[in-house]
Amino acid sequence: MEAIKKIQKILEKITPDEKNKEGGIFINAVKNEFITFPSTITVPKISVKELSYEVAGEVIERLCSFFPEFFIHHCILPKRKPASDVHSIHFMRTLQGKHLKFVHFLKVDLRFGGDSSNVVERGNTDTYPSYLTNRMYYKSRLVPVEDANESDFSVFRVIESIEVVSDMRRRTFAMFDEVSMREFNNRLLEYIGGTIFSTSQQIYPFFVFDFFTPCLNVPRPTEDELKKGVEMFEPVFIYLYQRFSQKLISPQENLMELFPNCFNFEDEVIMLSEQFIDQLKSYFSRYSIIRDDELALRGWWKLEINPL
């Protein structure tokens, strides 16, 4: 607990006038995103069993100095979500929409990424190598929640479990990490429609299923980007909620009042309005995915984001 408190104090020291010292945002060959910073840090050897908060503390302090705009107003989660994600440190921040509450979930992965030229000390059966890096591997997602406090949140689920058929037997799973999310992510893209995106959703999908619910990826989670993300995601989630649950999240009159010009209704079925779809197209048009010869040689793509 003492190590967790130390990390929280690091977060609380970040001031609003501090700015990021970031390089570019990239997507690697296995479709994981990372962001670069203008120097290198040493990540110590990490236990294969679990990344301890004591080991993570110094690294997180350095990362906060590079990306204060990403970490400001966040709390560290003392218990990882899910608990099986043992080599990452998880952070959260609550944001209020017009009708729903959201959490910005920020996950930083410190496990060795495989570039042997940067190894400081070789690993063994008990630990991963210590290595030099100028990258932060991370996930940054807006998650709709029913409730949240300073150390945990309960997700606003659209489904409660997943049934899959295997070896002619039907099995119900309670955790998403036990089954592939491809089917659910494809359904998200089908419901939303691919025409609103300016980039390939196979390389970097913006809407993904996590925690039993649709989430929005926000790859550059600054204050303005998070607030705009909530503004754009909330009507989309309300629409998706009925698609999955067959129920309206709130009475039609209430939704029309809270979100004017965002919805059309046909026999109690909610639809996104053409006006709001145009707003979504404008929001996602700021993103572009670039790949030159050097990036292709590495198996990377670069994700560029125009300002709001």
Per-chain topology:
Elements: H1 2-12, E1 25-27, E2 33-43, H2 53-66, H3 68-71, E3 75-76, E4 88-96, E5 101-109, E6 119-121, E7 130-148, E8 153-155, E9 162-166, E10 169-173, H4 182-192, E11 207-210, E12 213-217, H5 223-245, H6 252-258, E13 263-266, E14 269-272, H7 274-284, E15 287-290, H8 293-298, E16 301-305
Antiparallel strand pairs: 1-2, 1-16, 2-7, 3-4, 4-5, 5-7, 6-7, 7-8, 7-12, 9-10, 11-12, 13-14, 15-16
Helix pairs in contact: 1-2
Count of distinct strands: 16
Tell me about the largest β-sheet: 12 strands, antiparallel
* SS element count, helices: 8
- Cα-to-Cα separation, first versus last residue: 39 Å
Going by helix content, strand content and strand pairing, the class is alpha+beta
Model regions low in confidence, pLDDT < 50 over at least 5 residues: 163-179
Mean pLDDT: 91
Q: What kind of assembly state do the chains in view correspond to?
A: single chain
What overall geometry do the principal axes of the alpha carbons give?
globular
Q: Tell me the fraction of residues in β-strands, as a range.
A: 25-35%
Residues in helix, %: 25-40%
SSE run: HEEHHEEEEEEEEHEEHHEEHEHE
State Rg.
20 Å
